[in-house]
Amino acid sequence: MSLEVVLELQRQHAHLRALLDRCDELLIATDEGTVDAEALVTAVRVIAAALAEHHAFEEAHLALVGDDPRHPSHHAALALGLDDPSVRALAAVLRDLRDHLRREDALLADLVRTSCSGF
Q: Which of 24, 29, 42, 92 could form a disulfide with 35 if both were Cys (CB 3.0 to 4.6 A apart)?
């Protein structure tokens, strides 16, 4: 896998984490009643769109996920969880998505080190 692909995936992960942070803030504010629920709904839609784009890019570069057949189904479960309107379910999906990104970030960091060791 090229270094450019790895760097793009890292950029996408950073963007997703920023969207998750915003959604977490809105989740708390909605729960406290200081923000209208529509702002949270919009934030979830933005995350869902960014996640779909990320999954498509990642699937186009399957070498990243290797032969793990669970990876695409985990992506599908994360995306499906964003459709659940309950706040408790949303909090769980956001937590799962953060964990997923952490695992992939560790893999990407190894790929960057491997790619750069030849220089």
A: 29
Q: What is the CA radius of gyration of the chain?
A: 16
Segment 13-40, tens digit of pLDDT:
999 999 999 999 998 898 899 998 889 8
Sequence length of the chain is 119
35-58 core/surface letters (b: 16 or more CB in 10 A; e: else)? beeeebeebbeebbebbeebbeeb
Cα separation, 27 vs 94, in Å, equals 10
Is the distance from CB of 40 to CB of 47 less than 8 angstroms? Answer: no
What counts of helices (H) and strands (E) characterise the chain?
4, 0
Residue 18 to residue 75: CA distance in whole angstroms: 18
Report CA 98 to chain centroid distance, whole Å: 7
Q: What does the DSSP 8-state code read for residue 58?
A: H
Tell if the pTM clears 0.90, that is, is over it.
no
The upper half-sphere exposure of residue 88, i.e. CA atoms within 13 Å in the direction of its Cβ, equals 0
Q: Which two structure tokens, joined as six digits, stand for 118?
A: 């030849």
